[in-house]
Amino acid sequence: MHMAFHELVISGVRQEGTDAVALEFAVPQELAAEFAYVPGQYLTLRADIDGQDVRRSYSIASAPDAPLCVGVRQVEDGVFSTYAQGLKVGDTVQVIPPEGRFMLQNQQDILLIAAGSGITPMVSIANAALAKGARVTLVYGNRDFKHVMFRSELEALKDQYMGRFTLIHILSREEQDVPLLNGRITGEKIGRMAKAGAIDLEAADGVFLCGPGEMITDVSAALSGLGVAKSAIHSERFTPDGEAPRKRSKAAQAVAGSGVEVEVEVILDGSRKKFRVEEGDENIVAAAARQGLELPYSCKGGMCCTCRCRVTEGSAEMAVNYSLEPWELEAGFTLACQTRPTSEKLVLDFDAA
Question: Which segments of the protein form a coiled coil according to its record (predicted)?
Fold first, then answer.
């Protein structure tokens, strides 16, 4: 059963930093159970913008019992993020209920490392964890204080939980008194902060990373090298941040350029449907849509995992993978919106667990 969009009314809009907005949604009582979430999850928003069906995923930034809220930072040439800056109270947006596997569980000593708009899930995680009695340290990177999202909320948390919440700002374009707090967040910097006693890696039973892919890769590797168990490291990357999809492999090029249409069969909600992939089709989802079959997807960016399916016959490659775990790759799972066939027949099971 694949989740559907619901039309929600915007109940609040506020500026967050110089180039972002927080959007609050009114959730009707009859949808309350469907929109219940675990801190760290996200919503997928959809709008018709200049005749184009645009979908984007944004992390939930709500504190427990507060209105459902997401933060949207303006991205240069970003179709949805530009549209979102102009939304106002009373407007409606189509929203898929909460999804995602970047979730707070029962960790008691938590290190959060975020850059830019990667703060949004951390606001929700920090609020919930602190309310449950956990100790939380947040390392938050930005260009300068003007660009800090949810600054007033973070400062309020610091005042409320003075003994259990540590907030450390890292700024790349605004000088701070402590040299260690200047520049970008890197694995090397996190190591130095641990050595200086600013963060306690040994005590942390959960480390959550959200931001640019480069930062996540670098910091994750450094954390592992510093003895943090891989099972304790959780990451979320919603924006590619300049990471281009990799070029087609020789196998994918050979299939795409052979002149032979690839036959694809999908298993979806218990039924089987067939369609063909032509040379000009960007991916499986695009090929299906061209032939009138809508496969499940939310963001089309390889980030939301809604289009996850298992290859049961044939072979394929992914242009990008921002959300599948290593065990899922080993089990044959792929993201349809990033999938390119490397064989002339491909069977994909969307019902696979």
Answer: none
